[in-house]
Prior knowledge:
The protein is of the alpha/beta class. The chain has 20 helices and 15 strands. Helix content is 41%, strand content 15%. The longest helix is centred in the middle third of the chain and has 22 residues, at 175-196. InterPro entries: Alkaline_phosphatase_core_sf (IPR017850), Beta-PGM-like (IPR051600), HAD-like_sf (IPR036412), HAD-SF_hydro_IA (IPR006439), HAD_sf (IPR023214), PGP-like_dom2 (IPR023198), Phosphodiest/P_Trfase (IPR002591).
Amino acid sequence: MSRIRRVLVVGIDGVRLDTLRRVPTPHLDAVADAGFLSPVAVAETTPTMSGPCWATILTGVDVTKHGVWSNDFSGHRLGVFPDFATRLARQDGRRTYVAAAWEPLVTVADGGPMLRRPTRLTHHAPAADTPAAWEEADAAIVRDAVAVLTHEDPEASFVYLGAPDETAHHLGCGDAYETSVETADRRLGDLLTALRSRPSYATEAWTVLVVTDHGHRDEGGHGGGSPDERTAWLACAGPDITAGARPARPVRHVDVAAQVYAALDRTPDSHWTLDGARIPTVPRAVLLDMDGTLVDTEPLWLEATRSVAAAHGHTLTEAEGASVLGRSCADTAAWLDGHCPDSGADVLEAELEETFLAAVEADAPLRPGARALLDLLEHDGPPAALVSASPRRVVDAVLRTLGGEAFRTTVADGESDRSKPHPDPYLMAAARLGLPPEACLVVEDSPTGIAAAEAAGCRVLAVPSSAPIEPAPGRRVRFDLTSLLHEWAQRESV
């Protein structure tokens, strides 16, 4: 059964990117290591103030649409362009949760609320406009949020921490500010622990986003256009992102809400006119299946199996043919041995290999996008490995057509302890590249290969060739390989 998608967004106000590089933030680092952390440039048209920046983050549209131009929200258009928690609750009937101490976010103060109608709300206003009072308010917010995240079932949540920004305003970006950032990170850790403590956590697929709205000048304060004020950041990890990935294009504040919708597998309606989009990422390595993924050899394999079975007195049914796709010669021969009495698995395996090899050498057409993808991987892409359930002789025959320059290593049937659908081939390929499997994207076409990749702990891009494949957390499905080319080609766009 597919895991249930859930999203947590943690907003930490006014945290400079360079501060993260100086102070210990192990919980934020863990999110970044499991996915990515990227700088975000506040758009030139957006004032570097909390109101406009958070409105952009939460709605997914720019300031000219949502109309929040300052920390007084009067005149906004949040009814037309609502925040993601409100939109998901009102339009989809999803359970959403918001926890925040800054009053305009959740009350009518100063033209609010920005987050208009989540299904569950926590609010603790600070007792005074001081760093200490804001620390107490954040502590109360997180205490309540931990209880909700542990024991209730919000599908999308937003938790706001404001103490670092307030500390910078009062005391500048010195020791007290850095201490406040460290404290916010500990509170992030409490929220992440709450997720892991959920009784249903093992059946859920959580995406976590941690984002700031703007930076600060050294002396404290923002609203100008300096790099320190205009540089924000986003960290994101989830089932659809490989560990240590890098965004394929510059990340923007408008992308945060879009990423929330993508994490919930919710396609935005066109009339929402979002300015943001899901953030495409480039993995640290790509592990490519061969048959049916790069070359259109699945029909050849099916015909080879059908021919060998018929020669030994068995007529392959359609369902049986589907079951052998993606399997090795040895596995298929062992299965055929049960249907072809007195043949012997060794004999069947040898005949399967010879028949398939002859067909591949005669004609192994490339699948759409394969040549362009291999060229990209060879010259400008992440490290790649070829991982096949075919025998080495078949792999080498295909490589003579493909060229092996794009691959740092190749794994063929029999070179790992077990073949697909076991994880061993993908674990071997990741180890040869010196990477953990969760840092690798596997590109596969068959349920057998996908089972191997997911058992290894890899993220998967499925490009079905014969058997249908359903999307799931950690498994995206695309029509063909050109989707990767389109995503990675965005790297220079804005």
